[in-house]
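To: structure desk
From: M.T.
Subject: fold request, one chain
Message: Could you run this one when you get a chance? Sequence is below, nothing fancy, just the single chain.
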Amino acid sequence: MAGWFRRDGSDDVDDLEKAINELGDEQRKLVAKFDRAMNDFATERSLETCLDALNVSIQLANTRGRMSEAWERYGRIMEGEVARLSRQAGLDKK
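Reply: Done. Structure tokens follow.
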């Protein structure tokens, strides 16, 4: 996807892309697990099922936080590349 982007042999974008995909997969699994935990809690109303749902919700929040950080970093890299390519295109016109 980002072959045009790579400079100095950096795999940073590819690594971020891989991390984002992995975090997305983890998030989908946790959402399904959270749904089951909440259904169990709604059925049983026990302290154990409540704590299970809480634990999964904390895991989900942590995963979403890491994903947000990865997307922010990806966005900053892309913004830098757009600026670099814009400057380069501006220099080429002269």
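Reply (cont.): Residues 47-93 form the longest helix (47 residues). Let me know if you need anything else for the meeting.
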